[in-house]
Design goal:
The structure holds 2 protein chains of 2 kinds.
Chain A: E1 2-7, H1 16-29, E2 33-39, H2 60-71, E3 74-78, H3 79-84, E4 96-99, H4 102-110, E5 113-117
Parallel strand pairs in A: 1-2, 1-5, 2-3, 3-4
Helix pairs in contact in A: 1-2
Chain B: E1 20-25, H1 34-45, E2 51-56, H2 80-84, E3 92-96, H3 97-102, E4 115-117, H4 119-127, E5 131-134
Parallel strand pairs in B: 1-2, 1-5, 2-3, 3-4
Classes of the chains: A alpha/beta, B alpha/beta.
Chain lengths: 119, 135
């Protein structure tokens, strides 16, 4: 199945982003295709390369970058939401790209299921 | 970047496909950014010629209440934008009857024309959708 994800909450603040990651990982392991992951609201903070969690904690941003590289997942950050929160190309982590909300609608049209993770 | 379609060139795969998109607004208009950013999604989505409907439930019903004054919280009053939705062919607006009743609101308190439906009917509407986005 072709699955799209929408992530609406920031890393470390809210569990949504962890749940989304574990869901995506499990779906990929089952042979499903994760077409695109769209980051919106505070979810855009998942893409900041300036993130430095303590050594003994999970690195949420690096985890996404690794997933994008290994499974060719398209990680899209909403430009308007990103600019509001200080996310720009110069501090964008590997594997992410900044684009418009149209990418979210397109994911809804092209995927078999679009799954939202948020509050 | 193409402004009207939010950064994408319409390709063959999405062109011609019409899905039922429902946007569910559950949160108060101010206090968090969800309502404002949800409205931005709906306005962009209008360029895609999909079958769009919006739902207002829980504190989300406050988003379309008349007479919003935001000057003293130094936040933009974006409620007039809901009146513009009709011009974007977003005409199916559903409001939860239970949410209205719980808050002592009546149809006259709202700034747009809506259809007020009970939660059982709302569940049927949701069942009928291809894509449900909840904010």
């Amino acid at each position: 199945m072709k699955i799209g994800l929408l992530i609406n909450e920031g890393p470390y603040q809210h569990q949504a982003t962890d749940t989304a990651y574990l869901f995506a990982k499990a779906a990929l392991a089952k042979g499903h295709e994760i077409d695109r992951i769209f980051f919106y609201h505070d979810g855009v903070n998942n893409s900041s390369s300036l993130t430095e969690p303590p050594q003994d904690d999970r690195n949420i941003v690096e985890r996404w970058s690794k997933m994008a590289e290994e499974h060719n997942v398209d990680l899209v950050v909403c430009v308007a939401a990103a600019l509001r929160r200080g996310i720009k190309d110069e501090n964008l982590a590997a594997g992410f790209r900044i684009s418009g909300l149209g990418q979210l609608i397109e994911a809804g049209i092209q995927a078999d299921r679009l799954v939202t993770f948020g509050d | 970047m193409n402004e009207t379609t939010g950064g994408i060139a319409m390709d063959d795969e999405s062109e011609g496909t019409i899905k039922k998109f429902m946007y569910i607004n559950r949160k108060a208009p101010y206090g968090t950014v969800y309502a404002l950013e949800a409205l931005e999604v709906v306005l962009i989505a209008a360029a895609f010629d999909q079958d769009v409907s919006m739902v207002f439930c829980d504190d989300g019903v406050y988003q379309i209440v008349k007479g919003q004054h935001t000057k003293f919280i130094d936040v933009k009053n974006f409620s007039p934008t809901y009146r513009a939705l009709e011009g974007y062919d977003v005409e199916k607006l559903y409001v939860s009857k239970e949410s209205m009743d719980e808050r002592g609101l009546a149809e006259d308190d709202l700034l747009v024309d809506v259809e007020i439906v009970d939660n059982a009917k709302m569940a049927d509407l949701m069942e009928d959708q291809d894509v449900v986005l909840s904010f």
